[in-house]
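Exercise 7. Predict the joint structure of the components listed below.
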Amino acid sequence: MSYVAIKGGGRAIAAAAAVTEFLRAEEGLLNTQVEPLAIAAIQHQLRHLVDRVISEGGVYHPEFASLAIKQSLGDTLEAAFALRAWRSTRPRLSATPALDTSRMRLIRRISSAFKEIPGGQMLGPTPDYALRLLRLELIDESPEAFRSLARDWMANCPESALPESFPKVVDALRAEGSLPPVMPSRIETAFDITREPLVFPVPRSAALATMARAETGSLLAMAYSNMRGYGDVHPTIAELRVGYLPVLLPHPVTGELTEAGEVLITECEVVAMYDAPEAGGKPVFTIGYGACFGHNEVKAISMAILDRALQKGMKDGADNPSEDPEFVLLHVDGVDSMGFASHYKMPHYVTFQSDLDRLRTTQQKSGARA
Amino acid sequence: MNATAKTTGGNAYNFGFLDEYAKKEVRRAILKAIAIPGYQVPYASREMPMGRGFGTGGLQLTLSLIGPDEIVKVIDQGSDDSVNAVNLRQFIEMTCPGISTTTKTAESTLIQSRHRIPEQPLTAQQIIVLQVPYPDPLVVVEPSEDKRKVMHGEADYSRLLVKLYEDIVKFDEITISHRYPTRINGHYVIDPSPIPRWDVPKLNQSAALILFGAGREKKIYAVPPYTRAEPLAFSDVPFRVEDFRDPAGQRRACNRCGCTSSFLDEFVSDSGSKSYQCSDSDWCDEQLLALPAHEEKTA
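Solution:
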């Protein structure tokens, strides 16, 4: 018999897990000295992969993110999913106030809006200007050379201490009146997307939180559609910064804000062409904001562009998909979209039987009429 | 660079996997759903460790309702042994130590199902949880959730009825096969999940509480016990379930148990001939036991 309702499902699932685990360890057949991938190696040597997973998983836990990458054989969607599923079982114990990103310990910071910025441009670690040529020498990298790399770099590092904080470029623009002032009344308690469903229209903080843990590729595709012509953002990057942000939490006993640690984040502010002024006001630039866990510049830039596009859509109505909050926010989550795409692999024979019934009946009727 | 949130052993999950706050939230949403029959209650669906679309909404309902004395049955396409049913059942067993599971509809207190409602009528002591991919029947005529919410509030289902009417004009037949829009208690129209039309009449005046969970779409809704459930239709074009008669007009029977009153799965052999078997595996087993000589007809 051909397609029989799947029987022995339990055995099949166990066998599928076993053969996947075999693939993870297959190298052992070729090399008896093989070592399993160390969590620390993933965390440090595949750091951008870890950055993606902590950001899309929605929890800052580089160690568990590395574990998720290991057990999913490097599948980012699966790894973010496993981390998110772990995160979803944790109760919410506390909330931080809005954190001041001017206090970030920066590793990189640029502005494309100005040649010079207060505090200076700082290129930091980036592949932006590197030639994407395969570095064949890394195929057979010697452990000794590898170990001395970081030590040599540290030894040659100039002593000059960096300032504690850098001023924000947008603050300067705001001070000269090119940007709208921050409205104190608009500072609201942030919407927690892990505890409240999105019921449209949603506040901007809900949109930002949704995008902050969105799947990088999905966010990029939507932002790209806006940049290419299905939209009108034409952004300029006022500032892009990457660094460690001190996290302040209320002390459990005294309630006093206490530094609990720091998280690596990427933050981007884009400035876009100005709007027609409100009645009686002066025209000002508009701003889009993006931020995410880890070092992921494409994600932060995409988010900033979409934030600006969504603000426009909410104000004047959406002319393009990337300006429609429902279209953007309900389709960028990797856990949701990959799960639903995968579910089509499950059996659907009852509904298909029902489809066949309708097709055969309508075929019969159209045959009868002809 | 770390904000290490060390877990105890990394694997110490709460009974029912979800933390108690999450369960409480789901239960509140259930109560609201029962109070407003057919209304889609938004809730903050948690990520579960299986794919969105694999029954995470149903699972959150099950895990929030489950108690230590529960007897749980999990089916997919009517079968207890389908891979997804097995997977969900194993997960429930793993995270809810002490509960029991069964394949027998009559024995169960809580049934989680995908795409079917059991043939055996359910009782007032039972709850059935259906897994839902698309909670809103209006999605076929209106993509915006914001607008759909207003349409539901005003019980404005005119565009849905126009869609049914257009079907009749084009095909002389309503072409909706499963997920048949059904009006609950005279107001809200629901998507009853991808159950075949065969199962829709079971929603009407059901003794058991019927809950619907859409995890990815973050909605919970209910058909409370003894509530009207009417599939949308016209007075001159009545609602019809799947037709299992052969070309001679004879009702097809299950190959295995001989039942002529159940929803049938169709099997095509390598030679191209078709045969039929009950989709509800427990029902099929029960019918077989009721046969005089317990003789199994071979497929």
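Discussion. The mean pLDDT of chain B is 91.
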